[in-house]
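Example 5.3 — GNAT family N-acetyltransferase
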Amino acid sequence: MMLKISAVSYEDKLILQNLIQLYRYDSSEYDGHVLNKHGLYQYKYLDHQWTDEYRRTFFIYKDEELAGFALIMLGVPREFVKLSDVQETNVMSDFFVLRKYRGQGVGKQAAFDIFDKYPAAWEIRQTQRNHPANQFWNKVINEHTNGSYKEEYLNGSWDGPVQCFQSNKYD
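Solution (predicted C-alpha cells):
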C-alpha cells in the first residue's frame, strides 16, 4: 500500500468541501448534524483552514486515489484544550477515511504519519455516541505510543472521550 499525505491548497477547497459532506453524513448518526435548507451539512471552519496560521489541512491518498482528509490545529494554547496539561497541544480537529478504505490500515498509517510529522503533545476528541471512532483512536494511539496515553470521558463543554498523548518522531 502506498499512502501519501499532502497539504490541501486553497484551489482544492471545493474538493475538501465535498469530502466534508461525506464525513458529516457518516457522523450524523452520532453527532446529530442536520442538513440545511439547501441539503448540505454546514462546516463553519472551512475557510479558516487557509486563514488561521495554526491550522493544517491534508488529503490522504492511497495508491494515488483520494481516500480522506485530516484537519489539525498546531500549538493550541492550554485554555482551548480539554485534557492536555502542557502549554501547547496539537489537536486532531477532524479526520475522515472513505468507507472503501476503512479496515485496511489507511487511517492508522495516515494518523501515524501526521503524529510523526508534528511531534508534540496531542489531543483527540470524539463525540459521546461515536463508539467506532473511539475504538479506532484508542487502537491507533495505543499502538503509536505503546500504551502511553490517557483517556477521559468529559461532560460539560465537551461530552465524550478525549485522548491525550505525547508523539515523538522515530527516525
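Remark. The two ends are 21 Å apart (CA to CA).
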